[in-house]
């Protein structure tokens, strides 16, 4: 159901948003094929449970950043060394477009978080 809507979401994004978003969505599908793809608040999301607070990862795009939404505890102190150019937003990690190292570090963080919930 959500696959078509998620594809439509990416079609509405600018070039950077499409590129980063599709990579993040492919990462989630590859690493967590059992998580249900969905849309929540018009954003592509993969849920661990039926509700967002049970664990999720999502993606959104803006003019200058992409944001990977995960629970705030994944951006605990000490993550700054791994993600020096990223900022912690409200329940998300903001990545500046053009930052080539941050997406891999964010994926590592998301993989560790979701891996704990799905183990």
TrEMBL record:
This is DUF1801 domain-containing protein. It comes from the Bacteria. It comes from Lawsonibacter hominis.
């Amino acid at each position: 159901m959500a696959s078509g809507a998620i594809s439509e979401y990416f079609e509405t994004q600018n070039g950077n948003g499409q590129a980063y978003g599709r990579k993040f969505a492919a990462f989630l599908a590859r690493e967590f094929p059992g998580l249900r793809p969905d849309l929540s608040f018009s954003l592509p999301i993969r849920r661990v449970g039926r509700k967002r607070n049970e664990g999720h990862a999502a993606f959104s795009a803006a003019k200058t950043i992409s944001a990977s939404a995960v629970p705030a505890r994944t951006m605990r102190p000490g993550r700054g060394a791994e993600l020096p150019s990223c900022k912690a937003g409200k329940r998300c990690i903001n990545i500046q477009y053009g930052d080539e190292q941050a997406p891999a570090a964010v994926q590592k963080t998301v993989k560790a978080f979701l891996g704990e919930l799905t183990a």
